[in-house]
């Protein structure tokens, strides 16, 4: 597609308004997906990228999503993100947070390392710390089947939400998963070293307990917020799992830790047979119900499932703003194209009322006619400074 695209703020049709508490002022891509180079300046309110399928709309959202821990909204191998699969790419943004500017870069050079590097103002940091600078909330077509897929996908979906609120959650989750892997290896080796089991199980309880506490804290925030949502179906969410049953029945955290540790110890014989750890927050499922109908989400219609998902994402955005006192940044990929006119207008108003930056994609400009004049539309089919087309 585009080898060189450079969009100025005035070309995008932005209008000046009071600055939000944090937003991305500019984006540069180098060797990313179908872009050899791309540059754009943004205003602080909704921006829609429109154009034909394959022009690179979602790729821009994917690049922005790398300003959070993980592998972006598509969760692909990092080397697959590079232009013509050449093994290296760079994503650079300028972030205005509380009137202070931060230059943030994320890049990969597969010839040196397969690990993504992140720098802020020239200083290297762990990608896990990105949530301390901004909260990016995504809704993509890949999430449309979240209610009918396996529990692991719903668990990952919710954990990504949690680490937006609580930056340490991502690190705790990785340390917990590492401990689970160590215990599983002991099980598969049929190890009789009780001291090793004792030590690793203490680590599982340590990190697992914090994961559960953080999940429940965010779950309460979202369920409370969803009850205030009038335009989209109300979703009720709860965690289902053995360790959650123990947690809910425990009189305090210390009692829960003791009970969790005891359960791990008593299950060693059973877990030896299966070769896996059969209890813990890695086995949790997120159950979502359509509240008004008292119907589990996986049994709802496709349209109802989409509306429930939007309801949850809006609750995340509103709760994040109240919890952190910062405006979130929304990535909404092809969300409007599957909504009727009433739902389009309702969602537009919800986004505008957030007074937050949102990046959206769509085929046609008509999908975004319900937004006011403060929004921006960037047509990737008709940029004046496009020099040439290059395809994968």
Write a structural description:
The protein has about 400 residues and is of the alpha/beta class. Strands 1-3-2-5-6-7-8 form a 7-stranded mixed beta sheet, covered by helices on one side. It has 9 helices and 15 strands. The N terminus and C terminus are likely disordered. β2 and β3 form a beta hairpin. The chain folds into 2 domains: about 200 residues, Rossmann fold; about 180 residues, RecF/RecN/SMC, N-terminal domain (Glutathione S-transferase Yfyf (Class Pi), Chain A, domain 2, Up-down Bundle). The protein starts with a strand and ends in a 13-residue tail after the last strand. About 35% of the residues lie in helices and about 20% in strands. The radius of gyration is 22 Å and the shape is globular. α2 runs antiparallel to α3, α4 packs across α8 and α8 runs parallel beside α9.
Summarize this, please?
The chain is α/β, with parallel strands linked by helices and 392 residues long.
H and E string: EEEEHEEEEEHHHEHHHEEHEHEE
What is the CA-CA span between the terminal residues?
Answer: 8 Å
CATH class division of the largest domain:
Alpha Beta
Oligomer: single chain
- Beta fraction: 15-25%
Categorize the overall geometry: globular
Average residue-wise pLDDT: 89
Enumerate how many helices there are, as a single number. Answer: 9
The CATH homologous superfamily of the largest domain is termed P-loop containing nucleotide triphosphate hydrolases
Number of domains: 2
Q: Any idea of the CATH topology of the largest domain? A: Rossmann fold
Structural class comes to alpha/beta
Spatial strand order of the main sheet: 1-3-2-5-6-7-8
Q: Approximately how much helix is present in the residues?
A: 25-40%
For the secondary structure, the number of strands is 15
| CATH architecture identity of the largest domain | 3-Layer(aba) Sandwich
Poorly predicted residue ranges: 1-20, 384-392
Could you describe the largest sheet, including whether it forms a barrel? 7 strands, mixed
State Rg. Answer: 22 Å
